[in-house]
Amino acid sequence: MKQERKTEGVNQYLKFSAMGIQMAVTIALFAWLGNFLDKKYETDQPFFTAGLSLLGVFVALYLMLKQLPKK
Predict the structure, then answer these.
(1) Can you give 32-62 as a three-state secondary structure string?
(2) How far is CA 8 from CA 3, 5, 15, 22, 70, in A?
(3) What is the pLDDT of residues 40-54, one digit of tens each?
(4) In this record, what's one Pfam family (predicted)?
(5) Is 46 a domain residue?
């Protein structure tokens, strides 16, 4: 009985840790893509980086909220 509660806590910890890593990777990928596009099109201002980084934040938040338990 006590082992189940301990395992459940570890599972929750791993689940939320994975969500944080997923958010970071998603935002980083969008930022990298924006940086790549800024360099490819030789823009004066980093519009693609800023825009895609912001989009990455929204996508990461959406994915995180979608994975949260529904209570």
Answers:
(1) HHHHHHHHHCCCCCCHHHHHHHHHHHHHHHH
(2) 9, 5, 10, 21, 17
(3) 999 999 999 999 999
(4) ATPase_gene1
(5) yes
Domain extent for 38? 21-67
Q: pTM score, two decimals?
A: 0.83
Classified as helix, coil or strand, 3 is: helix
Look at residue 56 and tell me if it is in a domain: yes
Residue type, 13: Y
Where b means 16+ CB within 10 Å and e means fewer, 23-41 reads: beebbeebbebbeebbeee
Per-residue tokens: 4? 């189940």
- If one counts the domains in the chain, the total is 1
